[in-house]
Structures are given as structure tokens and as C-alpha cells.
Design a protein that fits this description.
The chain is mainly β. Helix content is 10%, strand content 38%. A hairpin with a 4-residue loop joins strand 7 and strand 8. The relative contact order is 0.18.
């Protein structure tokens, strides 16, 4: 008799647990989602620069988007995903992914020196030197967007040069294996 009670209780518990579990579907109205469950990943952005691994968050150590600093990227039209060095990691390396709000859908967006200030773009800033870096070629791929939870994830890669127009150009920085996972439009 104890065995039957135990079996019955186990069956009831299993049924209740499966009925109450999250279906895993956190999609937005466009049904574009990929596991947006972790609100605070270890690093908002990761990449390799000339083969060296970098793992960063924004200035405040979170995965929240930051306001645009320049008027040619107005917040009403663009979202800025920033990853930069901190007081403990003072190498001066900063990457800004600038996502045009009209491009905020799953897809791949090419970047080069022509996309600067007009559409989705990537900027690398090396504050440790005085050389301007120009994004010459690359792409940002949005793999997941959830407009309900305001979460965007994806990958990126690009190459920079200190000469905006030279053909062929010398690659100063080759950024590969880039990933990002940010919350955007976070209320202050």
C-alpha cells in the first residue's frame, strides 16, 4: 500500500511540475528568440583581437546599452552596445556596436567605412594610442531579438585600418569570434 501511495504522489508531483514549468518560449511578437533567460551574462561582449581574447561589459560592469555620445547617432534612431576597459583592465580597448533601430531584426548587417554614421556600424577605439581606427570590412549578425524583454544577442567580426581609403589596406586589428548579449532601452 505504501508503494502505491508513493507512486501516486510521485505521479501527481511530476504532473504538477510539468504543468508549472516554463515552456521556454520567451518570444516577442515576431517570434525571434533564442534563450533570453539569463539577464546578466558573465560578459556582455567577447571577441578576439589579433588572436587575443577579450571579455568586457559596459562602463558600469553590466550588459545594458548606453546612451549615444554623438548626435550623428541619435538615441531615437540607434542603440549603442558598448564594451570597454575598466579601472582594473586599463588597456584602453573599447568596441561600440551601433545598431540602427530599423535593423533590429534577426539578420546579418555588413559594416565598412561607408556604414559609419548612416546605419548599423562597429567602432573600435584604442585609447592607448593616438591613431584613429577605421572599420574597413566586417559584419554584425543579430541572432536573437526579443522586443518584449528588450534583449538582443548576436555575433560580429571586422577589420580595422588607420587609413580610411587605401586599397589595399593594412589591417591593424582583426576582430574575430565576437559575441554580444545586451539589454536595451533600460529605464534609468
Amino acid at each position: 500500500m505504501k508503494f502505491l501511495k508513493l507512486l501516486f504522489c510521485t505521479a501527481v508531483f511530476s504532473f504538477m511540475a510539468s504543468s508549472c514549468s516554463d515552456s521556454g518560449n520567451d518570444s516577442d511578437n515576431n517570434n525571434n528568440n533564442n534563450n533570453n533567460s539569463d539577464p546578466n551574462p558573465a560578459f556582455a561582449m567577447t571577441w578576439k583581437m589579433n588572436g587575443v581574447q577579450f571579455n568586457r561589459n559596459n562602463t558600469w560592469g553590466t550588459n545594458e546599452s548606453t546612451p549615444n555620445l554623438f548626435t550623428y547617432y541619435p538615441d531615437a534612431e540607434f542603440i549603442r552596445l558598448q564594451a570597454n576597459s575598466t579601472l582594473t583592465v586599463g588597456d584602453g580597448i573599447e568596441i561600440n556596436l551601433i545598431l540602427k533601430r530599423t535593423d533590429l531584426v534577426v539578420g546579418t548587417y555588413p559594416v565598412n567605412n561607408e556604414t559609419d554614421m548612416v546605419t548599423t556600424h562597429i567602432d573600435l577605439i584604442n585609447n592607448s594610442n593616438d591613431v584613429s581606427e577605421w572599420t574597413r570590412e566586417g559584419a554584425i549578425t543579430i541572432t536573437s531579438i526579443n522586443t518584449t524583454t528588450k534583449r538582443v544577442k548576436g555575433t560580429f567580426h571586422f577589420k580595422t585600418s588607420d587609413d580610411r581609403e587605401a586599397i589595399p589596406y593594412t589591417v591593424n586589428y582583426d576582430i574575430t569570434d565576437g559575441t554580444f548579449d545586451y539589454r536595451y532601452d533600460v529605464p534609468n
